[in-house]
Amino acid sequence: MGIVSREAINQLRALMDQAEEPLQITFKNVHQGYLTETLERFLKARECNAAKAHKMLIDCLNWRVQNEIDNILSKPIVPTDLYRSVRDSQLIGLSGYSKEGLPVFAIGVGLSTFDKASVHYYVQSHIQINEYRDRVVLPSASKKYGRPITTCVKVLDMTGLKLSALSQIKLLTIISSIDDLNYPEKTNTYYIVNAPYIFSACWKVVKPLLQERTRRKVQVLPGCGRDELLKIMDYASLPHFCKREGSGSSQHSQNGTENCFSLGHPFHQHLYNYIKEQSVIREQPIKQGSFHVSFPEPPEQEKEIAKTIESELHKFGNGNGISGSLDNVKISDY
């Protein structure tokens, strides 16, 4: 649903005006001065139903208060070696901006292993990037381009996607649920590149399960997607794995400033330094151990999608005679 009526926005705004003070405080961190655009996002996520959008937003704000999300950018992942391990196994970065000024986030789906730390560290890292995007990157882009910029585009690299991805479904479902419930409609378009057959097989069965507004956002591009992506961004903003066929999303690169997954890339340097500075400003003691966040119960649709992917990967594995490695991994184990 692309257009939200002024009436629905006014209804939701009136309901939010009645929220208690602790929720009003964290709400300011959510909307960053772009109140109308934020109300529109939650309305879109609930088919423009003001009452449902209000419940979703209040639930989101309660989650933020209960889990101290407003302080998560002052909680560095330490020691540095652990943070490096998280970054090397959870491949994400900011490669540049679209011609419309939207941040371009690159995600190495296929080569992210999520096996160097506990699930809590990966959730903490993911939320920190979300919050840094919303509180620093997007406001900065809005100022630079002179208009509200409250969404981004994501380029998902499927290089290296294997049957072992089944072991990641639990974590990915948690992260997806956190995004769906607390950061709705933050992504304008998802571009899928370097997709192997295993992705195509899963996408064929998952696509019908998605809501129409989500399906419209997903574009599967041929090859590395370079030619199509150059229509919406300059060459300099292309993720490194889109600049030439077969480049892939390796987390290691001789040129750390080009590979947006690298700790040497400006985005990660700025993010790392920002979190350290915030811990000093807020006088937060730096201690080892993850910042635990409560995981929301995945919506029924998320559960169905996860089970469908699991089933499809099992079938794919059986067809290739390698099902043994998958036998002990089930959604219900988590």
Automatic annotation (TrEMBL):
<dbReference type="InterPro" id="IPR036865">
    <property type="entry name" value="CRAL-TRIO_dom_sf"/>
</dbReference>
<dbReference type="InterPro" id="IPR001251">
    <property type="entry name" value="CRAL-TRIO_dom"/>
</dbReference>
<protein>
    <submittedName>
        <fullName>Phosphatidylinositol/phosphatidylcholine transfer protein</fullName>
    </submittedName>
</protein>
<dbReference type="Pfam" id="PF00650">
    <property type="entry name" value="CRAL_TRIO"/>
</dbReference>
<dbReference type="InterPro" id="IPR011074">
    <property type="entry name" value="CRAL/TRIO_N_dom"/>
</dbReference>
<dbReference type="Pfam" id="PF03765">
    <property type="entry name" value="CRAL_TRIO_N"/>
</dbReference>
<feature type="domain" description="CRAL-TRIO">
    <location>
        <begin position="79"/>
        <end position="239"/>
    </location>
</feature>
<dbReference type="InterPro" id="IPR036273">
    <property type="entry name" value="CRAL/TRIO_N_dom_sf"/>
</dbReference>
